[in-house]
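Q: I'm a student working through a structural biology exercise. My instructor gave each of us a protein and asked us to get a predicted structure, then write a short paragraph describing it. Mine is Type-4 uracil-DNA glycosylase. I'm not confident about reading structure output yet, so if you can add a plain explanation after the tokens, that would really help. Here is the sequence I was given:
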Amino acid sequence: MTAPNAAPASSAPRVNPLQRLWLRELGMERLWLRPVATPAPQVVVSKTDSAAVGQASSPPPVTASPAAQIAAAAPAVSAEGSQAGMPQAGMPPAGTPQAGMPSAATPPAVAPRAGAPAVAVRSGPPPRPAPKADPASDTAPVRVPVGEAVKNATLDELREQVLACTACGLCEGRRHAVFGHGGQPTRWLVVGEAPGEQEDRQGQPFVGRSGQLLDAMLSAVGMSRERDVFIANVIKCRPPGNRNPKPEEIAACSPYLMRQIALLKPERILVLGRFAAQALLGTDATIGSLRGRIHQMKTDEGREIPVIVSYHPAYLLRSPVEKARAWQDLKLAARM
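A: Happy to help. First, here is the predicted structure for Type-4 uracil-DNA glycosylase. I'll explain a few features afterward.
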């Protein structure tokens, strides 16, 4: 007969902290740590009674211990003792706030970079936008177009209107508006283009070198601005840098010149320079094609005035060879 021997009870298996944590999570910590009794194997002593004992049978199937079952069901652990989604030994489960650590609802404040300027945090409603400047309070001169007052003005009233004119942008850079100067009654009206630097300083037309040349030319044919010649310009204010007058500037100033012609009633008009000739005659022809002949200008009152075109004295100072043609123009005007 076989005599089974009782095996001593084995001690509880040893576990590491990670396994203990998982056993606690699964609720099997006590089952795992309970001592497991190992059954003694059966040993065949003799075969005297084959009918009673028989041949040695195969050993009964061995049932896996609870520890082995748990180990097979537990998730695999890497060599470092960590796994995706599994807390490490000694660490609290995810989502558990720790002492000294901010919670997810209150993100930690970010310390400013070294050397970065401090930014003040403003509380309360956003600031209101600054009010826009009122165009009426601008210090720039108000553009006042030439109106009906010019058509009915006397010569003195017209002078005051020119001195106070703000019809175009030239009024912003002028020192003096140049109305004109000359003798009355007027036999000749000399019309230039625009005041220069000296004219802007003194407020008188054709002063400086060009004015001296014009006085000499008039004196050569027996005329004088102090006696019977009135001198004026199409533009009453100096263009910056003595540039050419712009069409809008000519249009703004032309009513003053037309009123001067109506009041002075000259016998003839001597036009000096291309811009003055084009503005007075209403043409874009060159001065070379306009000079040497007599033109007729019709006033608003229906009166026709002879017009002679010649070179500007400033151009004659730059091109002295043209003085001979200018002399011919003066003689043409004197023979009329």
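A: Here are two points you could use in your paragraph. The two ends are 171 Å apart (CA to CA). The chain has a mean pLDDT of 75. It's a good idea to check both against the output above yourself.
Q: Great, thank you!
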